[in-house]
Design goal:
- With 116 residues, the chain is α/β, with parallel strands linked by helices.
- It has one domain (4-114).
- Helices cover 34% and strands 25% of the residues.
- It has 3 helices and 6 strands, in the order αβββαβββα.
- The protein has helices at 4-14, 46-58, 99-114; strands at residues 21-24, 30-34, 37-41, 61-65, 80-83, 90-95.
- The strands form 2 sheets. The chain has a 4-stranded mixed sheet with strand order 1-4-6-5.
- A hairpin with a 2-residue loop joins strand 2 and strand 3 (37-41).
- The longest helix has 16 residues, at 99-114.
Length: 116
């Protein structure tokens, strides 16, 4: 089994001089309003469980669609935030899609063409 240090070493050797960028539909951290204020949560699912440890070990930028109701309030002027909260290891760059874009891309093309 590989440790975080092993992964960092492999990535630094193989990707030396390159910036590590991961792009996905789902984001690894979601900012949500709660009764206690804004909370940053990790969504359930295999994508985050598999790739968040890699990003924490290697750094870089994860680009994903913002979906939390407090996401827009928790980014800088370039729609970026450092994650995970409390001990940031990489940058999350959020992109915003309109309802029409989500309907056509995710519920349309992705769910009807790629994995019907």
């Amino acid at each position: 089994m590989y440790s975080a240090e092993d992964v960092q070493k492999i990535v630094s050797e193989k990707l030396e001089g390159y910036k590590f960028v991961l792009v996905s539909n789902r984001e690894p951290y979601i900012h949500m309003h709660t009764a206690e204020g804004v909370e940053c949560k990790t969504p359930a699912g295999g994508l985050t469980a598999a790739l968040d440890p890699l990003m924490q070990a290697c750094g870089g930028t994860w680009v994903a669609g913002g979906s939390g109701d407090a996401d827009r309030e928790n980014v800088d002027k370039h729609n970026r935030t450092r994650v995970p909260p409390g001990k940031p290891k990489y940058t999350l760059k959020r992109v915003w899609m309109s309802k029409d874009e989500v309907d056509k891309y995710y519920f349309g093309f992705s769910n009807q063409t790629l994995w019907p």
